[in-house]
């Protein structure tokens, strides 16, 4: 069964860092762009970052530009989201996405 598995979330103080992972079963995902989204309580799911199938092109929401870095390791069928200088407003459930598949989500909480 083809699926995406998110991991790496947790609790961190403002200014801290976390790295999220999205493991894909099957190397078919290496042929497509991958995306990270997030959803905060009471808000709609929003785009965070994306990476092309080749890994050479990346895009970021303005709110995370310069703080977050998306990458992918094709040999491991895994995408990553390195999150630095975290702020309380980054608190959300983070989801990876590829085509019509979604990870189960991983909670990120930024608080002092």
Question: In words, what does this structure look like?
Answer:
This protein is mostly beta strands. 0% of the residues lie in helices and 49% in strands. It has no helices and 11 strands. The strands form 2 sheets. Strands 2, 4, 5, 6, 9, 10 and 11 form a 7-stranded mixed β-sheet that branches.
Strand content: over 45%
Class from helix and strand fractions = mainly beta
The total count of helices amounts to: 0
* Uncertain ranges: none
Helix content: under 10%
Globally, the shape reads globular
List the helices and strands and how they pair.
Layout: E1 4-7, E2 10-12, E3 18-24, E4 34-39, E5 46-51, E6 58-60, E7 68-73, E8 78-83, E9 92-98, E10 101-102, E11 106-110
Parallel strand pairs: 2-11
Antiparallel strand pairs: 1-3, 3-8, 4-5, 4-9, 5-6, 7-8, 9-10, 9-11
In short:
With 112 residues, the chain is mainly β. The chain is built from no helices and 11 strands.
Tags for this model:
112 residues; mainly beta; seven-stranded mixed beta sheet; 11 strands; 49% strand
């Amino acid at each position: 069964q083809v699926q995406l598995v998110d991991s790496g979330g947790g609790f961190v103080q403002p200014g801290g860092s976390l790295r999220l992972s999205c493991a894909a079963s099957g190397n078919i995902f290496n042929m497509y762009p991958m995306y990270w989204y997030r959803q905060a309580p009471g808000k709609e799911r929003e785009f965070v970052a994306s990476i092309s199938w080749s890994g050479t092109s990346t895009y970021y929401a303005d709110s995370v530009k310069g703080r977050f870095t998306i990458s992918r390791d094709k040999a491991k069928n895994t995408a990553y989201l390195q999150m630095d200088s975290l702020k309380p407003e980054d608190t959300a459930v983070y989801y990876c996405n590829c085509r019509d598949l979604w990870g189960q989500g991983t909670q990120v909480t930024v608080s002092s």
